[in-house]
Amino acid sequence: MDWTALWLSLRLAGLTVLILLPIGIAAGRWLAYRDFAGKGFAEALVALPLVLPPTVFGYYLLVAFGAASPIGRFWEAAVGGQLVFTFEGLLLASIVFNLPFAIQPMQRGFEAIPAEVRAAAACCGLSPWRALLKVELPLAWPGVLTAMVLSFAHTLGEFGIVLMVGGSIPGETRTVAIAIYDRVQAFDDAGAGRMSALLLVISLTTIALTYAFSRRLGRRLG
Amino acid sequence: MPSLQRRRLLALLSGAGLAGAGLLGLPRPAAAEGGRPLVAAASDLQFVLPELAAAFEAETGAAVELTFGSSGNIARQIRQGAPYQLYLSADEDYVLGLARDGFTRGEGRLYALGRLALLVPAGSPLEADGSLADLAAALRDGRVTRFAIANPEHAPYGRRAEEALRHAGLWQAIRPRLVLGENVAQAAQFAVSGNAQGGLVAHSLALAPRIAARGESALVPAEWHSPLRQRMVLLKEAGAVAGRFHDYLSTPAAQATLGRNGFVLPEGTR
Amino acid sequence: MSAVAGLEVELEQAGPIPLAAAFSCAPGEVLALVGPSGSGKSTILRSIAGTYRPRGGSIRVGGACWFSAGEGIFVPPHRRAVGMVFQSYALFPHMSALGNLVIAMGQRPAPEREARARGLLELVHLAGLEDRRPAELSGGQQQRVAVARALAREPKVLLLDEPFSAVDKATRQRLYREIAELRRGLEMPVVLVTHDLEEAAMLADRMTVLHRGRTLQTGTPEEVTTRPVSAGVARLVGLRNLFEGRLAAPRQADGKATLDWAGLVLETAGGLEGAPGRPVTWVVPDGFVVLHRRDRPSRGEHENPIPGIVDTLLVIGQTAHLTLRPDHDPRLPIHFSVPLHVARRNAVARGVAATVSLLSEGIHAVAPTPEAQEAGG
């Protein structure tokens, strides 16, 4: 049982979700409320990771962040280390790759708010920030929650990109998904089986708890 | 907002904040100097290297972290800046190439010679015939539909498997039935899982108890393929512990362990 | 003439929604914005509220400038003290009725808010329903919460966007009465957008007719519906008796003018400008068309008698809606209505001959239609 790998996976998923929360709300809200030339293109860009195979994505990430690239070199100069083969690199890749999982449900959530209700919030004297907190988020929260759960679950299961961008560095980039793959290759079926079962239980529990909680919250907020 | 809702929101926010702080702040296990240095090894060492590392730790009190893959893959990662400190390759060409391009400290040392073996799972229609005559017959009469080797593009044992199959005149016939493993350990996995009727894998893997228990193996003549000169090298950023492990692997005790596990010892060659 | 505390609106833009509107509303006055769909009424309302920013114009309330394109001033909606009742009410579904009001009371210190909110809900006859969510309230109740919420803001302007369109007729009648009562206590300008002329006539002190974003006429409902300034306005306020004629005599001894309508001479109420022979577009509201009684034929006793044949007869409820084709010019029928019993008593039916009088005080000249201008030169 590779607890380091499990903790790594949970950290990666947790941080991805935390960072994507404000990004998703801002982007989802913007796309929901505004209409502008090129909106279709922006939405397609957001949706790209959904249709792109993880390995294609991983390849471009290597090209973009690798040691030879400008971004890689900048990172090296700024932080003193690599982006690839590090947890930070994985986190960055994970954030980008989870954008559609975070943004799209949130966008739907905000779109579901009738435009007149938003106008009413402004007419009731609520500044845009207070309107977000008191009216929009309470109404769009199912979308926000779905986005968070999807991103978390998706990151826990991410394999292709982690493999390409992260290598399998224990304690750094060997997530539990990779560790399971490792165990299978090492003919350690028992180990692989244990970790797989644990991952399954964690994923199921997360999703079940989330939906149960959301139902109760939904009853209160109506 | 009623006070109950406000309190709950506050609790939620502080919980999230703590979680965030915890996730970020937790010190990461250092994979470099001071901590446990990363040793990247070819997959044929999957079973013997952990044994060697344990012995090393028992003796010196210092521990290393092991990661396995195909030699070519590891070499590529090193070129991309992977934080390995010691590289045990199954093919010295990769090591020499890295040395030439300045990634290593010197040209390293030959630590073993590898052998290729035919592995067949229990219940397979194939026989463990190292001369591959039975394999040839099986190809003719349709007994074999899938045959596992490591990917010749970046796995040394895969390349040698191709060479051996070509030498036996079986390459064209067997090509459409090949299943390629990412590395030789995965090829062995395919071979014994029953999903293939057999495979050409590292002798060291075929001997490992876990695999030997699930099938039979036979050595393929070493003259049928180019030699598997397995070379190890310390990388540029290697620390003290990695260096000591590197030296340990050449000690008689370590060499004996390697010999027991299917490797041929280099006999003082460099 | 605008009072210091009133609303003054001037809006100009070519597109995407064309606007060329100007009107004002005094404190305590109810102004109805009337026009067909697409006439820009809601856009104007949203401009006053601040949720829409027009390209040009200005909006001033009580001397304070909320918007001025020329000076680059634009006060965002949450900083305007405006109370708006939306067509769909737009109540916050996740809050109770009380909650909806309390959140709009940012201008009051927190301890006062709940008490004031309860007071307002009582004012709109919703005491006891404070803790209900909008989904648990009927349409009429939701509408009242919406009104109370708009008032909770203590607004300087109250805006109502077709507030009764989603409500059934019976409830609507009741709401009209309640709103009429309520407004007596209001001291701010109230702007009501509606496409229903009767509603406007019932609730508003003054009315502005809009078409494609342009204000055509502002005046009391009575003025606008009986003395429209143009044929366009006439049509928009539902006047169908719109005809072309020529000026016969601008001013006679008794102050009246006469029109020549395809050979028939009509007397109008007041004098008309212009030279004899000039084309005149004129209108007479339905209410000024009187049916002659069959059993008492008149000759010259009534004003402007028009004999003709009844063309259509439509009975709706207790009213008979009729059109009459005048003998002298059967091209354009005259529309009018009478109570059903009158129609029966006079044996009015399709194809039957009848005579009506056009009361001269109802005959009103409007600006000519473009066609008449072209034809008459």
Task: Output the keywords.
heterotrimer; A: 222 residues; mainly alpha; MetI-like fold; B: 270 residues; alpha/beta; D-Maltodextrin-Binding Protein, domain 2; 2 domains; five-stranded mixed sheet; 19% strand
Explain what this protein looks like in three dimensions:
Chain A has 222 residues and is mainly alpha-helical. Chain A has one domain: MetI-like fold (Orthogonal Bundle). Helices cover 81% and strands 0% of the residues of chain A. Chain A is built from 11 helices and no strands. Chain A has helices at 3-33, 39-51, 54-65, 70-79, 87-97, 99-111, 115-123, 128-157, 160-166, 176-185, 189-221. In chain A, helix 10 (176-185) runs antiparallel to helix 11. The longest helix of chain A is centred in the last third of the chain and has 33 residues, at 189-221. The radius of gyration of chain A is 20 Å and the shape is globular. The mean pLDDT of chain A is 87. Chain B has helices at residues 3-25, 48-60, 71-79, 92-100, 133-141, 156-167, 171-174, 184-192, 203-207, 209-212, 240-248, 252-260, and strands at 38-42, 65-69, 86-88, 109-114, 116-121, 147-150, 178-181, 198-202, 215-219, 228-234. Chain B has 270 residues and is of the alpha/beta class. Chain B is built from 12 helices and 10 strands. A 5-stranded mixed sheet of chain B has the order 2-1-3-10-4. Chain B has a 5-stranded mixed sheet with strand order 7-6-8-5-9. Mean pLDDT of chain B is 87; it is low at 26-34. Chain B folds into 2 domains: 22-113 and 230-260, Periplasmic binding protein-like II (D-Maltodextrin-Binding Protein, domain 2), CATH 3.40.190; 114-224, Periplasmic binding protein-like II (D-Maltodextrin-Binding Protein, domain 2, 3-Layer(aba) Sandwich), CATH 3.40.190. Chain B is globular and about 75 Å long. Chain C is an alpha+beta fold. Chain C has 2 domains: 7-235, P-loop containing nucleotide triphosphate hydrolases (Rossmann fold), CATH 3.40.50.300; 242-366, RNA polymerase II/Efflux pump adaptor protein, barrel-sandwich hybrid domain (OB fold (Dihydrolipoamide Acetyltransferase, E2P), Beta Barrel), CATH 2.40.50. In chain C, 24% of the residues lie in helices and 31% in strands. Chain C has helices at residues 41-49, 97-102, 110-123, 139-152, 169-184, 197-203, 221-226, 231-236, 340-345, 370-376, and strands spanning 7-13, 19-25, 30-34, 56-61, 64-68, 73-74, 82-85, 157-161, 190-194, 206-211, 214-219, 242-249, 258-261, 264-267, 279-283, 289-291, 305-316, 319-326, 334-339, 353-358, 364-366. In chain C, helix 3 packs across helix 4. The longest helix of chain C is centred in the middle third of the chain and has 16 residues, at 169-184. The model of chain C has no long low-confidence stretch (mean pLDDT 84). Classes of the chains: A mainly alpha (222), B alpha/beta (270), C alpha+beta (377). Chains in contact: A-B, A-C.
